[in-house]
Specification:
Radius of gyration of chain A: 13 Å
Shape of chain A: globular
Structural class of chain A: alpha+beta
CATH topology of chain A: Arc Repressor Mutant, subunit A
Strand content of chain A: 5-15%
Number of strands of chain A: 3
Largest interface: A-B, 19 and 19 residues
Number of helices of chain A: 5
Order of helices and strands of chain A: HHEHEEHH
Strand order of the largest sheet of chain A: 1-3-2
Oligomer: homodimer
Distance between the termini of chain A: 39 Å
CATH superfamily of chain A: Winged helix-like DNA-binding domain superfamily/Winged helix DNA-binding domain
Chain lengths: ~100, ~100
């Protein structure tokens, strides 16, 4: 993925991950991606009322922090949470921030 | 604690918590407080090479975000992670960010 580089998980810094998660839109995106399935980057279905360029900014922060991959298949771009890698590197973090452990 | 107000846990916003944790010094402080025991605010024992005023700034961010209480006993000020409250509100979050689940 030369156009959309992402760091090796071993080089991912928890501080950068926390910064990436410190935004309501990005946390919302991560929650929608929590199952680890790729999701099209097209604006439909994200449930946010922001411009495409702002959304692209958030996607970039998520990718550069190590939280996501951008997947390219022809003209389709998708984003995927690096869930299994993140669960291995920071056990319990994604489950906690997306609220999987919450009882309410 | 009128001089050092802290939000009710029900009002604590995960975004503010994530912002508070998005700093290496503050994450270090939270790790040292992870057992939930109060710790004196005096500079000794924190293992950081920063000014007292910068440290005070970090303590304030932690308190205002809802992560900590400042406890006053005479001339002694201590800081305490609101561990049990946080564990109830954001299950698994503190354990994940302080690395309690990590195997390395």
């Amino acid at each position: 993925m030369p156009d959309y580089p992402a760091p090796d998980m071993a080089d991912v810094d928890i501080i950068e991950v926390m910064k990436a998660l410190s935004d309501p839109i990005r946390l919302h995106i991560v929650r929608l991606l929590a199952d680890g399935a790729p999701r099209s980057k097209t604006m439909e279905g994200w449930g946010v009322d922001i411009t495409k360029s702002t959304m692209a900014h958030h996607f970039r922060i998520l990718r550069e922090s190590g939280l996501t991959f951008t997947l390219i298949s022809g003209r389709t771009h998708a984003i995927q949470l690096r869930r299994s890698e993140l669960d291995a590197r920071f056990p319990g973090l994604i489950a906690a921030v997306v609220g999987e452990n919450s009882t309410d």
